[in-house]
Amino acid sequence: MLKDNEKNCQKRCAQAFLSRYDAEGDEFLVRIITTDETWLHHFDPETKAMSSVWKTLRTPPPKKALVQKSAGKHKFIFFMDRHGMIHRVPDGQTVTATYYSKVTKSIHF
Q1: Burial bucket for residue 39 (CB in 10 Å: 0-12, 13-18, 19+)
Q2: pLDDT band at 73 (very low <50, low <70, confident <90, very high)
Q3: Could you say which of 18, 37, 46, 83 would form a disulfide bridge with 77 (CB–CB 3.0 to 4.6 Å)?
Q4: Please, which residues have CB within 8 angstroms of residue 85's CB and are 6 or more apart in sequence?
Q5: What is the DSSP letter of 77?
Q6: Rg (Cα) of the chain, in Å, rounded?
Q7: Per residue in 18-60, pLDDT tens?
Q8: How far apart (Å, rounded) are the C-alpha atoms in residues 21 and 29?
Q9: pTM value?
C-alpha cells in the first residue's frame, strides 16, 4: 500500500545499507540500534470463583455485565542492539528527536 515515492525511498535506503555493509562488514552491524514501541493493556478480570452462582437446572444462566476491555494501558518504548534491550523509556517521557539522540549517544559500542 506504499506510494511509488515511498517504495523508491525504501529501496534507496536498503541499497545504502547494503553498500555500507559491503564496505564495513560486521563492524557496521555492531553499531545498529533499533527501537520498538507498543501499548500493553492490563486487565482486572473476575476469577472463576467470583463469577460463579448457584442455580437449578431450570434456571437460565445469569446475565453478565459487559466486560471492560482493559483496566488501563501503558506505552512501552524499547531501544535494542544486537545483544538485546539497552534502554526502556520511562513512563511519561515524551520521545522527541532530542531524547532519541541523547539515548543513542549514551550507548557505547
Answers
A1: exposed
A2: confident
A3: 37
A4: 78, 79
A5: E
A6: 24
A7: 999 999 998 898 888 888 888 877 766 666 566 667 777 788 8
A8: 7
A9: 0.47
For residue 57, the 8-state DSSP code is T
What residues have CB less than 8 Å from 38, skipping those under 6 apart? 75, 76
Residues 2 and 10 sit within 8 Å (Cβ to Cβ): yes
Sheet with strand 84-88: strands edge to edge: 34-42, 72-81, 84-88
Q: Is 87 helix (H, G, I), strand (E, B) or coil?
A: strand
Instruction: Give 3-state DSSP helix, strand, coil % of the chain, rounded to 5.
Output: 35, 20, 40
String of b and e for 99-108 (b: at least 16 CB within 10 Å)?
A: eeeebeeeee
> Which 3 state secondary structure label does DSSP give 22?
helix
| Cβ neighbour number for residue 97 with a 10 Å cutoff | 7
Contact 14, 48 (CB under 8 A): no
Total count of residues recorded for the chain? 109
User: What is the residue type of 40?
Assistant: L
Indicate the Cα dihedral angle 56, 57, 60, 64, nearest 10°: 60
